[in-house]
Design goal:
Blueprint: H1 8-25, E1 30-31, E2 42-47, E3 50-59, E4 62-67, E5 72-77, E6 80-82, H2 86-89, E7 97-99, E8 102-105, E9 112-116, E10 119-120, E11 122-133, E12 136-145, E13 150-161, E14 167-175, E15 183-193, E16 199-201, E17 204-215, E18 218-228, E19 234-240, H3 262-269, H4 287-293, H5 298-310, E20 312-313, E21 320-321, H6 329-340, H7 347-351, H8 353-362
Antiparallel strand pairs: 1-13, 2-3, 3-4, 4-5, 5-8, 6-7, 9-10, 9-15, 11-12, 12-13, 13-14, 14-19, 15-18, 16-19, 17-18, 20-21
């Protein structure tokens, strides 16, 4: 019998490559964490005049806030939190506010529901705290029923992104101890999405209402519905957003403050706020005091960069600044540039703007 000359190994390799390409196109969004844009990245405070808010800085473009009094999502937005008030800058009256437009704002302040045989049983929802493990946060809720049963729910929120860089938000729920026969659900509304396929879940997601509208020249889909959680294992609910958040934020500190500069973001991610404040001297000098003392020129940027990385003291009193050997030199330089830029009245600052531009070009 004549042997076949068909190149089976080569054909197999080609088919394998095509299969891998197909899988790559359909790959699921992946978690963005645990590199966070703020330190600490999980904190409780008043936010937008709402008390007992837990804020999670998940990603530069994805911040989330929860109402701990009702165990409900408050909002997800692109921006940051402006920390102001007596605790942060000795100013009495102001409170922390969110800066930046929202991807979504939850319109259900009491979203939870527990039913059995069609009867509503939920009496109260209690926030039991949150934990941080392996770079992620887990929120714990207790659903108290009118028959004396308590059901524990864990939620793990996270920023996600697909291979094209499209960012989104994921909520993963786990029912810990529900007896058989109970149906546990949560109201979910979705904003800032373009298509139904931008929403993915393994739970029972029933849409009650939907609308399409043109906002800022973009077609935006708005959905409202209810997600019934799986009794066994995890229930995920993933949303991939369009390129720009569609819900305007009324909070404003000026046209340029919806997003932080690179230097500000790097300061937020490190431990600077432990000893420094933007305006008021705490353990160490304020950023404004530093800016008024040193001009914006290349020699000072280099010297202060070295000081941040190696540490030292004696200039502002007896306190010694800790060393930061793990901090990259380019990051430290950006932080110094931001701090020195705060003194806009300094003649040296005005004369040194070109120096900052040149240094950015060097990096």
């Amino acid at each position: 019998m004549k042997k076949s000359t068909w190149p089976f190994p080569a054909l197999f390799n080609i088919l394998f490559v095509l299969l891998m390409i197909g899988c790559a196109k359909n790959e699921k969004p992946s978690h963005v964490g645990p590199d966070r844009p703020a330190n600490p990245w999980a904190f409780r405070s008043v936010l937008d005049l709402k008390p007992r808010i837990l804020t999670l800085a998940l990603h530069d473009d994805v911040w989330a806030a929860y109402r701990t009094d009702s165990c409900s999502l408050y909002k997800v937005w692109k921006g940051h939190v402006h920390l102001q008030g007596a605790v942060y800058d000795n100013a009495h009256g102001p409170q922390p506010i969110s800066i930046g437009d929202s991807w979504l704002e939850n319109k259900h302040p009491n979203p939870w529901r527990v039913t059995q045989n069609g009867q509503d049983l939920l009496q109260e929802v209690k926030y039991k705290g949150h934990s941080l493990k392996d770079g992620q946060a887990t929120l714990e809720y207790q659903l108290v029923l009118n028959n004396g049963t308590n059901i524990e729910i864990h939620e793990r929120p996270e920023a996600i992104a697909n291979k094209d860089g499209q960012v989104g938000f994921e909520r993963v729920f786990t029912i810990v101890n529900a007896p058989p026969g109970y149906e546990i659900s949560i109201a979910e509304n979705v904003n800032s999405v373009a298509l139904h396929r931008n929403i993915e879940t393994n739970g029972d997601w029933k849409i009650d209402s939907e609308s399409k509208e043109d906002i800022r020249g973009k077609q935006v889909l708005t959905l409202d519905g209810r997600l019934t959680l799986k009794q066994d294992g995890e229930t995920f609910f993933r949303t991939l957003f369009i390129s720009t958040p569609m819900i305007d934020n009324p909070n404003s500190l000026g046209a340029d403050e919806k997003t932080l500069s690179l230097g500000e973001r790097l300061i937020a991610k490190n431990d600077c706020k432990t000893c420094h404040n933007a305006k008021v001297q705490t353990v160490g000098p304020s950023y404004l005091q530093i800016a008024k003392r040193y001009p914006m020129d290349q020699s000072e940027i280099e010297r202060l960069t070295t000081k941040i990385i190696k540490g030292g003291g004696g200039i502002w009193g007896s306190q010694v600044m800790s060393a930061h050997p793990e901090l990259p030199v380019p990051d430290a330089k950006e932080m110094v540039r931001y701090i020195l830029s705060l003194d806009t009245t300094d003649v040296g600052q005005k004369g040194g703007q070109g120096v900052a531009v040149e240094l950015v070009a060097e990096l």
